[in-house]
Amino acid sequence: MFNTALTWSDLAFLAQGAAMTLAVTAVSVTAGTLLGILFGVIRVQAGPYWSLPLTFVLDVFRSVPLLIQLVLANAFQSIAKLGWGPFTTSCVVLSLYTAAYCTEIVRGGISSVPPTTRRAARSLGMTWWQDMRYIVAPLATRVSLPSWIGLTLGVMKDSALVLWLGLIELLRASQILVTRLQEPLFILLICGAIYFLISFPIARLGGYLEKRWSPND
Amino acid sequence: MIEIENVRKSFGTLEVLKGIDLTVQKGEVVTVIGGSGSGKSTLLTCINGLEPIDAGRIKVDGTEVHAKSTDLNKLRSKIGIVFQQWNAFPHLTVLENVMLAPRKVLGQSKQAAEEMAVKQLTHVGLGEKLQVYPNRMSGGQQQRMAIARALAMSPEYMLFDEVTSALDPQLVGEVLDTLRMLASEGMTMICVTHEMKFAREVSDRVAFFHKGVMAEIAPPEALFGAPKDPELQKFLAATH
C-alpha cells in the first residue's frame, strides 16, 4: 500500500502557495491587460513611427528573460530605496511583462477590424470613442481572446519564478515540502495537479466564450 | 441643398477630382455614372467629410463640411451613406445594427430606437429578420439592412456608393427596388451606379464623370438620348 508522510497541514501549506500564485497572477494579468490595452491603442493610433520608443521598451520586456528582469528590478528598487516588498516587485515586473505581450495581442485585434466597417460606423455619426467602444472593442476581443487566454496561462506558470525574490508561491511551497519529506515525485505530482486545476477553468472559460460568440461569425 | 464648388482632391500625385461643381436640390435624385477611377466614389466620401479635400468647398444646408468648426459627427447624422461593401456590424443582430447609431449618436431611448429600427427594416423588407445575425443573410439582405441602418438616423440626404456592385446578379434587383422606393418617397439622393437602366428610371439628372471631371450633366432623356461629350458617347456605347 502507498505510504506518505504528507499531512493535511502540508496540503494546507500547498494551498497557501497556490493562493499566492493566484494573487500574483491576478494582479499582474489585470494590470498588464489594462496597460496592454492602453499601449495597444496608442500603437495603432500613433502609427509605427511615433510609437517607436514605446515599441522598443516593450520589446525589451519581451526579450529579456523574466528571471533576469525580476532580479534586476529587485536590485533596482533596493538601490532606489523604493521600499517595495517582494510581492510588489514581482507584480510590477510581471505586469510589465504581461503588458508587453498584451500590447501586441491588442494591436493585432484592433487591426483585424476591417477599416470599411469602422468607416461605416463613423459615417453614421459615431465618434472615434463610440466606434472604439461599440464596434472595435467587441470585434477585437473576439479575435484576441485565444491569444490572451494563452498569455494568462503562461504568466500563471511563469509566476513561479518569483520564488527567487523569496515569495512562497506554489512551486516554492512544494520545494520546501520536498526538502523536508523527501518525496519529490509525489509532491510534484500534487503541485502539477494544482497548477492544472487553476489553469483548466481559465482555458474552459475561453472555450466557452469562443463558442458563445461563434454563431455570429 | 448640397453645394459642391470647384472641389479638388488628390491621392498622392494622382488627382482624382479636378474641380467639381454640382448643386443638388432638396428632393432631387442625381445619379453619377462613369468608368472606374473617374472620381465618382471619392466625391461621395468627401460630401460627408470622410475624406478631406484639397481645394474648393462643399456645403450641406449652408454648413461647410470641411470647415474646422464643423461638428462632423452631427453633420453625418443627417447625411446617410451606403457603401459597395455593406459593412454590417457582425457581432450585432440586424435589429441591433440598426438601433446602435440612433441610440448612441442621437441619444434616443431604447424603445424609440427599436420602433424606428423595426419600421425601417420592415420598409426594406427585412421585418422577419430582426433577430438574425448579418452573416446568416444574403448580400442583398445585408445591403438592405445597411440602407435601413442609414435611414434610421432620419437623414435628409442619402448617398449611395455603387451599392449593387458587390452583389450577385440575382440580388441586384431587390436592392434597386429599395432605392426606387426611396426615390419615389422624395428622398434627396446621390447615387453612384453602374446600372444604366436604373439611372435612366429614377434620376432627375445624371452626371457623367471622366478622369476627375464632370464631363456632362443633364436629365436622363437628354444624357442617354443625345449625349454630347465624346467620352460619354464611347462610355454608353461600351455599356449597352
Explain what you see.
The complex is a heterodimer of chains A (217) and B (240). With 217 residues, chain A is an all-alpha fold. Chain A has one domain: MetI-like fold, CATH 1.10.3720.10. Chain A is 82% helix and 0% strand. Chain A contains 8 helices and no strands. Chain A has helices at 8-50, 52-63, 66-79, 86-111, 115-123, 128-158, 170-181, 184-213. In chain A, helix 6 runs antiparallel to helix 8. Chain A is flat. Chain A starts with 7 loop residues before the first helix and ends with a helix. Chain B has 240 residues and is α/β, with parallel strands linked by helices. The two termini of chain B are 33 Å apart. In chain B, a hairpin with a 2-residue loop joins strand 1 and strand 2. A 6-stranded mixed sheet of chain B has the order 6-7-8-3-9-10, sandwiched between helices. A 4-stranded antiparallel sheet of chain B has the order 2-1-4-5, with helices on one face. Chain B has 9 helices and 10 strands. In chain B, helix 4 crosses helix 5. Helices cover 38% and strands 25% of the residues of chain B. At the A-B interface, helix 5 and helix 6 of A face helix 2, helix 3 and helix 5 of B.
CATH class annotation of chain A: Mainly Alpha
- Average pLDDT of chain B: 92
Number of strands of chain B: 10
End-to-end Cα distance of chain B = 33 Å
Q: What is the rounded Rg of chain A?
A: 21 Å
N-to-C SSE string of chain A, H for helix and E for strand = HHHHHHHH
CATH topology of the domain at 1-76 and 190-239 in chain B: Rossmann fold
Number of strands of chain A: 0
| Silhouette of chain A | flat
Residues in helices of chain A, as a percent range:
over 70%
Radius of gyration of chain B: 18 Å
Tell me, briefly, the overall form of chain B: globular
The CATH class of the domain at 1-76 and 190-239 in chain B turns out to be Alpha Beta
Give, in order, the helices and strands of chain B.
EEEHEEHEHHHEHEHEEHH
